[in-house]
Structure formats: structure tokens, C-alpha cells
Amino acid sequence: MKIRIFRILCYTTLFNIMLFSFSYADSADLVETYNNGIINWTLGIIEAKGNGIPENNTSDPTASRQAAISSARRDAQLNLFEVSKNLRISSVCTVNDIISNDDTLKRNLIDLIENTDAAAQEFLSDGTAVITVRMSIYGGFSQLLLPMEIKQIETIKSVNTSGTEPVSKNSDLPTAPDNRKNDIFTGLIVDARGINAKPCMAPKITDEAGNEVYGPAFASREFAVHQGMSGFRTNLQETQPDSCHSEIPFVVKGLRTLESSMTDIVISNADALRINSASENLSILKECRVMIVIND
Questions:
Q1: N or C: which end of the chain has fewer CB within 10 A?
Q2: What's the CA gap between 293 and 277, in Å, rounded?
């Protein structure tokens, strides 16, 4: 399990780097710290530690040590549950908001946490066991907690260029004008530094009039569950795109967050128009090829 977790994390990180053909030199992780653990939005993990004190009144040191390990694991998993409740799902709710009203969902989350294995283990000089547990916010966690409005989106049908309104058959994805002379991008990067933006699992990006440019309606659940609706970083150093690729990510500046939310970001009407100017860009959004850069 430990090896599998790290493989998933490494794959997700490398996926985002390769996806955008960008180099994130010395990029700091976006981490929220709590008393009993952290949420690392860049790696997509929740991490917590727990302590287990050995029993001094036993004649079996091995049994005492094992009891300390078991106690530490239970403590770490309890802390992991408490930290996970702080995670923002959207602009209107956290994990705690959701599970407080759904006992079945709460039980499923607890079961998911109880199945996490120790990612690290150490012993203090007095014999106290310290266990670290980590849980990915992708996969089962995302499938459990992502809004149901994020649905599976089928393949987008190309449309003609006769100037008529395009039709996207077998797809719930919002449509955009098909104009191949307009910009087609490999990914979307939103520079939200300096506007006090906060990360969440289902962010929205709107134009200045409040029209949604990216959000749950644009993302296919398969990709949102597997890698998240967006990646998060605190530092971005742009380099020249690979010489084999003529298309590059589109970098837009976040103007502000919506008044009702710190997680939903407003971009300029001009940038929104460029994103919506080609139907091919909808595939980029469908596959959640979005990165948001936020100050830590």
C-alpha cells in the first residue's frame, strides 16, 4: 500500500508537469497546516501523525511495542479523519458540512481512512511509537465526496464551420463556437496569486459578468476523480514549450475571487473569450488540464 500510494502521488505530479510542457523549478507545495496534520494540495494528500505509548506493566516487550504501534495507528487515523473534515469541496461546503448531514457517507469515509496503512513509523527514546498515515484526495476519496454534478462526459463531437451553433452529441459538456483560427491550448493555468484565493476540490472560474468558464459542468468525472479538477501550486516558472509542440498552455491572470467565495476565481472577459473561442479547448477542460497558482 505504501509503495502504491507513492506511485500514485508521483504519477499525478509528473502528469501535471508533462501535461503543460512547463518546468516548475523550486516550486513550493501548497500546504494547509492544522494541529493534527496537513492537507497538501500540490501532492493531493492528507497527512496526519499519531502517538502510541508503550505499556510499562507488561513482561513482554514485543507485545508492548506492538500495542504502542496499534495505538499510534488508531490515533493517526483519528487525526486524519479530523483533518479531512477541513478540506474544502467547493465554495459552499467542506467535507465536514457534507458528512454532518449524511451518516452513510461519514461511515464510508471512516472506512476509507481505516484502510490506510502507515506511510512512516518511528520510535522515540521512551518507546513511544509515532505513526504517519497519508490518504490521497483522488480515487476513492474523490469518488465519494466530489459533487454529483460532476458527471461523466462522453467524447466531444467536432462541429462544422458553417457559422451555425455547434452541437455536441453524446455529451453534456457546454459548447463553444468552432473557429479553428482562434487559440487552441494544451492546458489552462490560472495565476491567482495576490488575490487571497483558497484551494478546493471543485473550483470555478468565471468571467467578469459571473458566467462560468470552468467548473463542475465542464469537467468529466473520470478525470476529476483520477487527478482532481485542477492542480495547485504556489510558484510557477515558465519556460519555452517543447520544440516538438507548437501549442502551449494558456496562462490567465485571476482578477479577484467572487464576493461569496474565496475559492472561485474571476478572470477577464477577454481571457474568457479566448478560452471559449475554439471547441477544442473544451476537451482541455473536460480532461481537467487546469493548474491554479495560489500564494501559500
A1: N
A2: 23
155 three-state secondary structure = coil
Q: Hey, which residues does 94 pair with through a beta bridge?
A: 88
Domain ranges of the chain: 2-145, 188-293
Radius of gyration of the chain (CA): 22
Helix axes 103-114, 61-84, angle to 10 degrees: 140
pTM for this model (two decimals): 0.78
**Do 9 and 126 touch, CB atoms closer than 8 A?**
no
Assess contact for 77 and 113: CB atoms under 8 A.
yes
Q: Which residue has the cell 500564494?
A: 295
Number of neighbouring beta carbons within 10 Å of residue 78 = 17
Residue 57, pLDDT above cutoff 50: yes
The vertex-19 CA angle with 15 and 23, nearest 5°, equals: 90
Amino acid at 133: V
Q: pLDDT, tens digit, for every residue of 195-251?
A: 999 999 999 999 999 999 999 999 999 999 999 999 999 987 643 333 333 357 899
Q: For residues 256 and 206, give the distance between their C-alpha atoms in angstroms, rounded to a whole number.
A: 10
Distance of CA 214 to the CA centre of its chain: 15
